Amino acid sequence: LAGSGFLLSATAPAPIGVGKWSPVDIGGSLFWGSFAFLLGSVAFTADSTRVLAGEGSTPWLGQAGNAIFTVGRIYFIWGSSTGEVGIIFVPKHVFWSKYQEINEFRRRSTLALFSTKGSPRGVQMSA
After folding, report:
1. What number of CA atoms fall less than 13 Å from residue 1's CA on the CB side?
2. Other Cβ atoms within 10 Å of 88 Cβ, number
3. Is the pTM above the cut of 0.70?
């Protein structure tokens, strides 16, 4: 829990510019990832405290902790992306060229499937 708190303070954006604190701005993504880790740690600590008190484990606290940690991991991956390498760790120019190839193939396949009359090739439309 303390480590998550230190991570949060280390990744806090500079107080210049409001946009860097936004959860939808890449400039604040490391901070929000740290914040999610802190919240997940609170859930895990609460569950552990209940077990130590003899009340038993609460499954939803562990599940909530894992879900919140996953959100934090996504923020960290997003924050690690650069202008050259995107969130899926593939160079952006490679990703976009493959994306355009796939879309062009789909477009051509759809055009080839349908004749000029609008019916699929080989299928006779009766009136």
Report:
1. 9
2. 9
3. no
> Whose structure tokens read 């760790």?
89
More confident residue, 28 or 44: 44
Tokens 């934090």 label which residue? 72
Q: Which residues contact 39 (CB under 8 A, 6 or more apart)?
A: 68
Kindly compute the dihedral angle of the four CA atoms of residues 105, 111, 114, 117, in this order, to the nearest 10 degrees.
Answer: 180
Cross-strand partners of 30: none
Rounded to 5°, the CA angle 26-32-38 comes to: 160
- DSSP string spanning the chain? -HHHHHHHHHSPPPSS-GGGG-TTSGGGHHHHHHHHHHHHHHHHHHHHHHHHTTS---HHHHHHHHHHHHHHHHHHHHHH--SSB-TTSSBHHHHHHHHHHHHHHHHHHHHHHB-TTSSBTT-PPP-
> Side chain identity at 75, as an amino acid letter?
Y
- What tokens does 71 get? 């959100």
